[in-house]
């Protein structure tokens, strides 16, 4: 994070263990997903969304504090690991990781087009709830989670829906 960050917490916090290879891989998957320009950096504004896809719910205040400590408004993978590693190590049992979310999304996205349609959502809800929801209930769920109003649920919207 260069010279414009607060002193590293690495030295102040005793780690019980290092990240396992699969945890580093999960961080890499999340990082690559949000490296929108494919230039090896995540922008500060995408960091909050990235953290949410990993099952963390940062407050606006936490995001503001992180933003103030990030050089040039972006972080590279090494900085991302330094930031998210301790969070991952302290992860509670009820947090959902990005891999689990992606697996669930793929299961609901039965035609594999990267979107969950109304029909796919209806089937998914039937599996999850064990009962058929009415069209009105499905429309209500879709209205709540379909942020870009395209009538379908993409991965980011799905993550938001699952982390409520």
Keywords:
164 residues; elongated; Recoverin, domain 1; mainly alpha; single chain; two-stranded antiparallel ribbon
Overview of this structure, please?
Pfam families: EF-hand_1, EF-hand_7. This is Calcium-binding protein 2 isoform X2. One of its GO terms (molecular function) is calcium ion binding. InterPro entries: CaBP1/2/4/5, EF-hand-dom_pair, EF_Hand_1_Ca_BS, EF_hand_dom. The chain starts with 20 loop residues before the first helix and ends with a helix. It has 164 residues and is mostly helical. It contains 8 helices and 2 strands. It is elongated and about 50 Å long. The longest helix has 14 residues.
Tell how many strands the DSSP assignment holds: 2
Unreliable stretches covering 5 or more consecutive residues: 5-15
Name of the CATH first level of the largest domain:
Mainly Alpha
Strand content: under 5%
Share of helix, binned? 40-55%
Report the total helices. 8
Main-sheet strand order equals 1-2
Stated plainly, the CATH topology of the largest domain is called: Recoverin, domain 1
| CATH architecture descriptor text of the largest domain | Orthogonal Bundle
Mind summarizing the main beta sheet? 2 strands, antiparallel
InterPro entries: CaBP1/2/4/5, EF-hand-dom_pair, EF_Hand_1_Ca_BS, EF_hand_dom
GO molecular function, one term: calcium ion binding
Keywords: Calcium, Metal-binding, Repeat
GO cellular component, one term: cytoplasm
Q: What is this structure's SSE topology?
A:
Elements: H1 21-34, E1 42-43, H2 44-53, H3 60-69, E2 74-75, H4 77-89, H5 98-108, H6 118-129, H7 135-145, H8 155-162
Antiparallel strand pairs: 1-2
């Amino acid at each position: 994070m260069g010279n414009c960050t607060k002193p590293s917490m690495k030295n102040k916090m005793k780690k019980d263990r290092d990240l396992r290879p699969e945890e580093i891989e999960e961080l890499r998957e999340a990082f690559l997903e949000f490296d929108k320009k494919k230039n090896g950096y995540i922008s500060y504004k995408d960091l909050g969304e990235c953290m949410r896809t990993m099952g963390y719910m940062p407050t606006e205040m936490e995001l503001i504090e992180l933003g103030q400590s990030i050089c040039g408004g972006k972080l590279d993978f090494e900085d991302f690991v330094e930031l998210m590693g301790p969070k991952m190590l302290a992860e509670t049992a009820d947090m959902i990781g990005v891999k689990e979310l992606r697996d669930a999304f793929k299961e609901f996205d039965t035609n594999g087009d990267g979107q969950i349609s109304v029909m796919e959502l209806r089937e998914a809800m039937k599996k999850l709830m064990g009962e058929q929801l009415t069209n009105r209930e499905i429309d209500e769920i879709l209205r709540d989670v379909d942020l870009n109003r395209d009538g379908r649920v993409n991965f980011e919207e799905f993550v938001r829906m699952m982390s409520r």
